[in-house]
Amino acid sequence: MEVAVVLLFSAFLCLLLHRLLRRRRPSHLPLPPGPRGFPLFGVLPLLNPDILGSLFRLSKRYGPLMYLKLGNRGTLVVSSPAAARAIFTTADAHFANRPPLPTASMVTYERQDIIFGTYGPRWKLLRKLCVTHMLGARPLADSAPIRREEVGILLRSLHDSCDAPVVVPDALMSTVWNIMGRVLLSKRVYEDPPEFKVKMRQVLAGNGFFSVMDLVPVMIWLDLQGFHKEVRDVHLQFDAMISKMLADHAASAKEREGRPDFIDLVMQNRTGSDGETVSDVNIKGLILDMFTAGTDPAKVVTEWALAEMVSNPEIMKRAQSEIDQVVGKGRRLEEADLPSLPYLQAICKEAFRKFPPAPVGLPHCTFEACEVEGYYIPADTQLFVNLWGMGRDPDVWEEPMEFRPERFLSDGGRGAENNFELIPFGGGRRVCVGKQSGLLLVQYMLGSLVHSFDWRLPAGEKKADMEEKFLFSLSKAVPLTVLLSPRLAPSAYM
Ligand code: HEM
Q1: Is residue 395 part of a domain?
Q2: Which residues line the pocket of ligand 1, CB cutoff 6 A?
Q3: Contacts by 55-64 with C-beta closer than 8 Å and gap 24+?
Q4: pLDDT tens string 153-196
Q5: Per the confidence metrics, is the pTM higher than 0.85?
Q6: What is the CATH number of the domain that holds 53?
Q7: Is residue 161 part of a domain?
């Protein structure tokens, strides 16, 4: 009863404030079309649990630039390649910020990281450090031996457990986290510290950076389920773990003399040419970004690609035979082989189209009111690009629900990328800073796995379960479990 009274009273207060504070729109231009929604909750009550599908269906009714209220946040939803082009090119400067979502702020040390960092000198310096010392072409080539060793460990362990069921996402997760741990901190992290995988899974599973409550401030205030307390607890535990890892890293600096890792290089270059500096908290935020956004999407899309391939044996066979022709069966696939494998690359593109790991990208936000394609966009409007919907739009793709890598064979997908039809890494100033690295990792892991093993589903199943779960990323609801048999000479697994 008390809760109901508080809710009603808060709703009344918010409505009153909304009316009082509502300024007249300083433009003769219309807002983009969109559904009207309800006070406080906006269109949330109109969306069914299939949020991505609901948004896409609404955009088919209202158009590819659709304005609506998600909770009480003004939101622009982009759902066509032409609209994405307009946003990420001519209007990009207006949308270069991120919205201050309360859950994300709590997790990212009050937005001291790159992903949710305010657009400005600090964010630029953090991005520059990443490109110069980890994700640009040269540092990426320098870290090739780490990827080679870690993928080798994965192949050996799968080889040793052949004929026992393998839970693919678990195997992939250990590989991507260990690669990232070694690049960042010279440390294989999956089992050391022992709580690492549990804590990181909690960070990713606790809805990661988003909560519906962020959209309706009165719900945060009430927080009846204690969701925010839970997120804060997980964050504090993550912080304690990372602080300890950084202290151990500093204590062992001498052991790495002459071969610094990424965190060593960041520590040595904390001040940018404009005098901007990176704090200890920024470094923790950076580590959080890398162990989440820098690992999970590659794992997720590789699992989806494998699920499609075990369900479509002709695609699997064609990929294996392409790799056999280039690599043979006497050795493992190397990163240097990838440019000679157009079909494998097309499979990765097709997986990114159908299963974009960040299905609505990451939210952008306008600094001030602006005009896009003849529409008025208010200040503080958050932006989502429905990559998932665009990848399944029959107006853009022929038979979009078919997994058909051939559609990218003629030009390697360049046309689709240039036309903003295939943009799994987002676009504009906030485009994914790990785009090259993510693409390389997916191609290398996927190619190595399909070359090294024959794949089958347990208990004679013909098709993998393809149900989707949308949390921080577009995960498989049922983890892919397979049986493997080796297909290379035994020495290739040594
Ligand atoms: C398969 C791989 C990946 C996919 C599909 C992916 C996708 C994305 C998307 C859609 C965004 C948002 C872009 C936007 O706001 O328009 C993003 C941002 C970001 N990604 Fe990735 N990503 C991948 C791999 C990586 C890797 C390997 C790293 C780092 C090692 C990384 C680090 C980041 C960071 C730091 C941002 C925030 C950029 C900013 O706000 O300035 N990602 N990613």
Answers
A1: yes
A2: 114-115, 127, 135, 289-290, 293-294, 297-298, 301, 357-358, 361-362, 364, 424-427, 430-434, 437-438, 442
A3: 55/79, 55/360, 55/384, 55/386, 55/389, 56/386, 56/388, 56/389, 56/392, 56/393, 58/34, 59/386, 59/389, 61/35, 62/32, 62/33, 62/34, 62/35, 63/32, 63/33
A4: 999 999 998 889 999 999 999 999 999 999 999 999 998 999 99
A5: yes
A6: 1.10.630.10
A7: yes
